[in-house]
């Protein structure tokens, strides 16, 4: 009898009978981040975080949208009753994975020191609930936010931050390392330091913009070192899963392709925005032109030989890529590092994060494959919001442009995969409308509409489009 069972299982596993289950299927998921969705800002012993402070005390949304908004309630996903309903919506959508982030200030409220068991238990349960629903958790350890107590100690301006992060990462990996297959150390250092912190100027520094910008690169360097330390630790723990880092990447194009100044500025922007991070991560080097420009304004930026060796010796298991749009770069002698790209969306219908260019996603993926030894890549964010969309005409919410955006970007991503890119997953940003940082609740990116007053959820057209895509590609 035993023999027959063994033989039968060999037949099943070899795919002659029922097809063997692929251990790591392509990840079709959706993405979110703790501060943007959780709410529960004082729940279960959570400490104050940087974004709690920025929204409640500085009133940072005031500058751009003229009113104070916070993530104190957000879309209420800290509440289990709510998130179980959201898991149900994910199941109906057909995703097999969910990228979300942990809030450091729930786990170690003061950044260093005592661990908060209730915070850890919350994520334990969330992970279990997802797995019970057949959804693979993809866990980001750090998505822009961290304990305010560490901000007060200088945050990433303080080299000690690397050790504080390492300590936090150890707590997380020890607790969840056996049951989570995919970890992401950080999300988008460029956006955190060179865009958000730079624009907000939380420390109210009077230093020239060029100096503040250069100091952002120094902080990003520290984040790359902390990333390397966490990856090393993960590998030494012999865990079965995979760990990577997420970068925001944008091919840089001259706004005016006939203007030599724009061309030059776009080449430099590419080094600053893309190459600095990719080279740092995969080669343990930085483009000399970036190092020189940074040192001009921040002479203390002196990555040491041993630091670069750490970067060179530690490779992520996969690269997380957040792609929204290419950067259209125009030369601007007044701007820090001499170029601007944030508002150069030339499309007729404006999308929130730049021009709609799926072709550039294809170029980006194939470029990374060719230049960085064909690493595994996961598209950890890709999405858009359009002025005038997301109109509720009950029972549906219309977002044809977002549906079209997702469809065309998936086609581009899968074409790259067919052409040899080692792509392991795709996650639109975002599952739900949520708290869009300095823009508060005024910019929607979700596949699921959220009524921010009542917390009602309504799947949009883009949700059904994505559902079709997943079904067709499974
Ligand atoms: C961030 C998200 C953000 C999204 C849309 C990305 O830069 O990782 O947190 O909401 O872009 O702007």
UniProtKB/TrEMBL annotation:
Keywords: Glycosidase, Hydrolase. One of its GO terms (molecular function) is beta-glucosidase activity. GO terms for biological process: carbohydrate catabolic process. GO terms for cellular component: cytosol. It holds the Pfam family Glyco_hydro_1. Signal peptide: none annotated. Belongs to the glycosyl hydrolase 1 family. This is Glycoside hydrolase family 1 protein. It comes from Flavobacterium sp. WC2409.
């Amino acid at each position: 009898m035993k023999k027959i069972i063994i033989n039968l299982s060999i037949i099943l596993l070899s795919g002659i009978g029922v097809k063997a289950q692929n251990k790591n299927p392509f990840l079709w998921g959706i993405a979110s981040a703790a501060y943007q969705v959780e709410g529960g800002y004082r729940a279960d012993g959570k400490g104050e975080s940087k974004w709690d402070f920025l929204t409640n005390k500085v009133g940072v949304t005031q500058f751009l949208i003229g009113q104070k908004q916070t993530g104190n309630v957000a879309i209420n996903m800290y509440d289990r009753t709510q998130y179980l309903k959201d898991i149900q919506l994910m199941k109906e959508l057909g995703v097999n994975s969910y990228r979300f982030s942990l809030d450091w200030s729930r786990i170690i409220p003061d950044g260093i020191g005592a661990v908060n068991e209730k915070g850890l238990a919350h994520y334990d349960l969330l992970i279990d609930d997802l797995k019970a629903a057949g959804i693979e958790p993809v866990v980001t350890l750090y998505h822009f936010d961290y304990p305010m107590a560490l901000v007060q100690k200088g945050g990433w301006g303080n080299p000690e931050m690397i050790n504080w992060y390492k300590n936090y990462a150890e707590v997380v990996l020890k607790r969840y390392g056996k049951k989570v297959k995919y970890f992401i150390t950080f999300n988008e250092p460029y956006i955190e330091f060179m865009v958000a912190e730079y624009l907000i100027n939380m420390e109210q520094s009077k230093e020239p913009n060029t100096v503040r910008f250069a100091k952002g690169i120094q902080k990003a360097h520290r984040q790359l070192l902390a990333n390397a330390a966490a990856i090393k630790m993960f590998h030494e723990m012999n865990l079965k899963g995979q760990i990577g880092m997420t970068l925001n990447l944008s091919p840089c194009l001259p706004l005016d392709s006939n203007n030599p100044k724009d061309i030059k500025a776009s080449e430099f922007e590419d080094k600053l925005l893309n190459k600095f991070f990719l080279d740092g991560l995969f080669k343990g080097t930085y483009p000399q032109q970036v190092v020189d420009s940074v040192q001009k304004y921040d002479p203390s930026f002196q990555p040491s030989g041993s630091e670069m060796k750490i970067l060179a010796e530690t490779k992520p298991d996969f690269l997380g890529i957040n792609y929204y749009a290419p950067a259209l770069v125009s030369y601007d002698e007044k701007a820090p590092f001499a170029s601007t790209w944030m508002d150069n969306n030339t499309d007729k219908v404006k999308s929130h994060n730049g021009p709609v260019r799926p072709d550039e996603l294809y170029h980006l993926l194939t470029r990374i494959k060719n230049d960085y030894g064909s690493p595994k890549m996961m598209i950890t964010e890709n999405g858009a919001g359009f002025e005038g969309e997301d109109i509720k005409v009950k029972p549906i919410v219309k977002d044809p442009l977002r549906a079209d955006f997702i469809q065309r970007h998936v086609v581009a991503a899968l074409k790259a995969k067919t052409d040899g890119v080692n792509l392991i997953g795709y996650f639109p940003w975002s599952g739900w409308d949520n708290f869009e940082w300095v823009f508060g609740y005024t910019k929607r990116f979700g596949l699921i509409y959220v009524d921010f007053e009542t917390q009602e959820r309504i799947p949009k057209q883009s949700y059904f489009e994505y559902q079709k895509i997943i079904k067709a590609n499974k």
